[in-house]
Amino acid sequence: MIDREQVLHVARLARLRLAEEEIEPMASQLSAVLEHVARIGELDLDGVAPSTHVVEVSGRLRADEPEPCLPREVALAQAPAVRDDGFLVPSPQA
Amino acid sequence: MSEPTDLTAAQAARAIAAAELSADELFAAYHARACADRLNCFTWLPDEPAPSASGSSESGTGHTDAVRGVPLAVKDLFCTEGIPSQSGSKILEGYRPPYTATAVQRLQAAGAPLLGKTNQDEFAMGSSNENSAYGPVLNPWDPARVPGGSSGGSAAAVAAGLAPWALGTDTGGSIRQPAALCGIVGLKPTYGAVSRYGMIAFASSLDQAGPLTRDVTDAALMLRQMVGRDRRDATSLDFPGEIALPGAERLDGVRLGVPEELTGEGIEGGVLAAFQAGLAQAEALGATIESVRLPHAPHALSAYYIVAPAECSSNLARFDGVRYGLRVSDGGDLTGMYIDTRHDGFGAEVKRRVMLGTYVLSSGYYDAYYARAQRVRTKIVEDFAAAFAACDLIVTPTAPTIAFELGEKTGDPLAMYLNDFCTVPMSLAGIPAISIPCGLSGSERGLGPGGAGLPVGFQLAGPAFSETRLLDAAYALERAFAFDGSPVRARVGA
């Protein structure tokens, strides 16, 4: 149902890397799950509205007043790498 | 002589309020039990056997005496300021958040000190607690078996008497199913009743925090401190009225609906027998048993395993090695760092769900999977609405089986997902549901301590915001079932 090429494509989209020996098990496990969940294709759902959320909340606005946010040093404290005032990351073109 | 740890949370709180028991003594007693844990329930415990300063604060008003001084175990995925909050994942190893989740903060403000953080399936994805980066939790009834998941550490800690009560989260059954497998009470509130602020997200349209407790009274006591709108969670709602402590002795006039779709095929014989015996006891208390239909319930699992992975694949995009947690970078570029970090940081089940979610949201498949699953969700909501026109509460077994053996289902993800068959419909509909222990099963196979069997959960579900009614009915049934979990607490503590 889902083949090796699709697994590799989805892994790229998801920013995941699969070792060679992980590809086939992933394909067969995803296929088994997809085969099961695809049974909802049997249902007649014409004209049924989708539910994105079960709670009806609309137009709930708060006053637009500035408030203090996390201090910079606190926000940076858990980062793996920091330089000056920001998060340090490898160059996109390294 | 009885120990302070023999008391329920409500009893302990009363004893503390009456100055018959000191909060420090109670905390030290639980701390000692938790430190001697052999079930791997905890991922963090304080060094000192005393409540932290923030936990013993004297702030707060209202019925706060009702929980003051009763130590609280908290599932790892709740952010706790300055205290490791890793959601069972290697990618968050050592992460100490700069703030505390609202649910935890409210219980702390009411005087419940933090006892420890509990083990869980990684990012709450699992039904056996075998997906934790910090090792599996063992079932206190039989350490060769799983405690259920994903709130497995919370459930096992309460069942083993290592904590008086615990906070968990439920996305598709993650409070109710481990409560069932460990022989305790677990309640998933109405979606929106409790703020999700500070819960490390799995599937945001489904995640809810709730109590895991020794009895129904304790569940009510904890829940009433947690509910209410929080401006930091736009989906949280004001709870209509106050959650009353339960006191019903009878079920006269209460119509219990039994959906045939969730009480037949796929449910283990011994579980079904214990459930049927529970129904007979409900009738003896004056309830009427109605047969109801939830025609789309058999498709709930499919809809759930599309919607939840889709939301998870989006939520987990934030774990990229930039702002917190693990970073793995083998000298590559930025994208390479993201991929290396996620490769090393996520476990197998999380990768599987991210893959599944990414696939069902990807171009060409969205309409067949995600868009259809959202329509199935609408049908499930409608099914419940129709059923609640004919009955007051819906009852089912909580899980299709008793606790299974470690390793039994890890090789077959679909078999593992089927554990959630009876719990996901309520999750998709956002309605409250509670699991209470109704008896033991498996004695014919000589399972459990002394071959007496392992716990079976009885699930009750009601319409949105029916928690007080739900708790009242559960309380009456709890008295009738007279389930006794004390031998397990005594054995584990010995």
Q: Give me the secondary-structure category of chain A.
A: mainly alpha
Number of helices of chain B: 15
CATH topology of the domain at 1-43 in chain A: Histone, subunit A
Count of helical regions of chain A? 3
Per the CATH scheme, the topology name of the domain at 4-254 and 484-493 in chain B is: Amidase signature (AS) enzymes
Mean pLDDT of chain B: 95
Terminal residue distance of chain B: 15 Å
Oligomerization status of the protein chains: heterodimer
* CATH architecture assignment of the domain at 1-43 in chain A: Orthogonal Bundle
* Major sheet strand order of chain B: 1-3-2-4-6-5-10-11-9-7-8
Topology:
The complex is a heterodimer of chains A (94) and B (494).
Chain A: H1 4-13, H2 20-37, H3 72-76, E1 82-83, E2 86-87
Antiparallel strand pairs in A: 1-2
Helix pairs in contact in A: 1-2
Chain B: H1 9-17, H2 23-35, E1 42-44, E2 72-75, H3 102-109, E3 114-118, H4 152-159, E4 165-170, H5 176-182, E5 185-188, E6 208-213, H6 216-226, E7 255-259, H7 269-284, E8 288-292, H8 300-315, H9 334-345, H10 348-361, H11 367-390, E9 393-397, H12 413-417, H13 424-429, E10 433-441, E11 454-461, H14 467-481, H15 486-493
Parallel strand pairs in B: 2-3, 2-4, 7-8, 7-9
Antiparallel strand pairs in B: 1-3, 4-6, 5-6, 5-10, 9-11, 10-11
What does it look like?
The complex is a heterodimer of chains A (94) and B (494). In chain A, a hairpin with a 2-residue loop joins strand 1 and strand 2. With 94 residues, chain A is mainly alpha-helical. The model of chain A has no long low-confidence stretch (mean pLDDT 92). In chain A, strands 1-2 form a two-stranded antiparallel ribbon. The longest helix of chain A is centred in the first third of the chain and has 18 residues, at 20-37. Chain A has helices at 4-13, 20-37, 72-76; strands spanning 82-83, 86-87. Chain A has a domain at 1-43: Histone, subunit A. Residues 55-62 of chain B have low confidence and may be disordered. By secondary structure, chain B is α/β, with parallel strands linked by helices. Among the domains of chain B are: 4-254 and 484-493, Amidase signature (AS) enzymes (Alpha-Beta Complex); 298-372, no CATH class. An 11-stranded mixed beta sheet of chain B has the order 1-3-2-4-6-5-10-11-9-7-8, sandwiched between helices. Chain B contains 15 helices and 11 strands. Helix content of chain B is 35%, strand content 12%. Chains A and B meet through helix 1 and helix 2 of A and helix 8, helix 9, helix 10, helix 11 and helix 12 of B.
